[in-house]
Amino acid sequence: MDFKGSDTLPGPRTGDHLPHTAQAAVKIVIVGGFGVGKTTMVGSVSEIRPLTTEETMTQAGIGVDDNYGSESKTATTVAMDFGRISITDQLVLYLFGTPGQERFWFLWNGLFEGALGAVVLADTRRLEVSFDVIGRLEERGVPFVVAVNSFPDGPRYPIRELRAALDLAEEIPIVECDARRRASSRDVLMTLMRFLHSLATTGSPR
Amino acid sequence: MTPPRRQRRYPRHEPPPPPKPGKQGEAKNPERLYVVAGADEDGARAALDLVTLIVARADPPPSATPEQAALLRLCTAPLSVAELSAYLNLPFSAMTVLITELLTAELVQARAPIVRQAVPDRSLLEAVMHGLQRL
User: What does the pLDDT look like over A108-137, one tens digit per residue?
Assistant: First the structure.
């Protein structure tokens, strides 16, 4: 039995170790609202069981009110799930699923600044949840693609209509996916990589 | 049925600079608890990314704290800062303090990530695509 506080140190399972030759890593961020399937997508393509990194911050600034003059601050934990894909013996890709609220992004240095690009995971039942995320990425100049996670009970719109609703620039790819399926999630990542490659070929993004 | 509509935004002239450790209390952003609780006396901290790879250079010395010893035992093979944070159950900012101590003591080596460039490296992107195709 695996009790918390047992003597065994938590660590990578056999086979979850990187080779000693691993020289550098790159990252891709999967961003979207709560319950949109970020962790599902990370888990479906990751070679390791998805892990969680946390950051703790004080409550001031999180709530509705500013905490002027108040000495009582409550600690809040923000969690981010991530997974890993070994690309070569030297190169590793990490995927981070992060909450859509920009005020959490600064907690992890360079989360978006250093990422190759981002996948905005959207849900047609709550499309407007993605609006602000997409705007923030546009403002920051982070290259991204949009993946619409198909939920059985979600309304279906033609891609053309979704593109118009999201007011996406013509060159930004938008695809449908099933985040539970490895092949589908892999295709989303390939769509992002091909988009990044086209930006590298044509020169500048937008 | 028509979906709701969004309005496009454009890059700001000045992209927001990455926040500097220790100065965050002044901004609107909430504070990281462990920035205050960290052990770095002069505020100096290595620039560590979530995906900086950390490798132990030595066995834990007798003087190592339990956290330092645990970290050194975990990264006998390379592990990212994010993985170390997950396995040790420590917040990211606490991890960076711990790793900075070990870097200063030359007990670990840090392998910097490849970050996005203004002009992306096509061979890097192609390598990632080949890797994904094998999934």
Answer: 878 998 999 999 999 999 999 899 999 999
How far is A127 from chain B, CA to nearest CA, in Å?
7
Residue B117 lies in a domain: no
Please check whether residue B58 lies inside any domain of the structure: yes
Put simply, the chain A residues between 145 and 164 with a CB less than 8 A from any chain B CB are 155, 157, 161-162, 164
| Nearest chain A residue (CA) to B24 | A106
- Please give the ipTM for the structure prediction: 0.86
d(CA B131, CA B125): 10
- CATH at residue B54: 1.10.10.10
Task: Give the CA distances from residue A38 to residues A45, A149, B51, B92, in Å, rounded to whole numbers and listed in that order.
Answer: 11, 10, 19, 20
Against a cut of 0.90, is the pTM above it?
A: no
Interface of B with A in 16-45 (CB under 8 A): 16, 18-19, 24, 28-34
In a domain, B131, yes or no: no
Domain count, chain B: 1
Can you point out the beta strands (E) in A46-166? 51-58, 75-86, 91-99, 117-123, 144-149
Three-state SS at B65: coil
Contact of A192 with A185, CB cutoff 8 Å = no
> Which domain range does residue B80 map to?
29-111
Q: Which of A27, A77, A157 sits opposite B50 (nearest CB)?
A: A27
Q: Do B91 and A55 touch (CB under 8 A)?
A: yes
In a domain, B90, yes or no: yes
For A18-66, what is each residue's pLDDT tens digit?
999 999 999 999 999 888 999 999 999 999 999 999 998 775 544 444 4
Query: For chain A, what is the mean pLDDT?
Result: 86
Neighbours of A113 (CB within 10 A): 17
Question: For domain A24-62+74-202, is the CATH number 3.40.720.10?
Answer: no
Which residue among A25, A55, A139 sits closest to B32, beta carbon to beta carbon? A55
Predicted confidence (pLDDT) at residue B47 exceeds the cutoff of 60 = yes
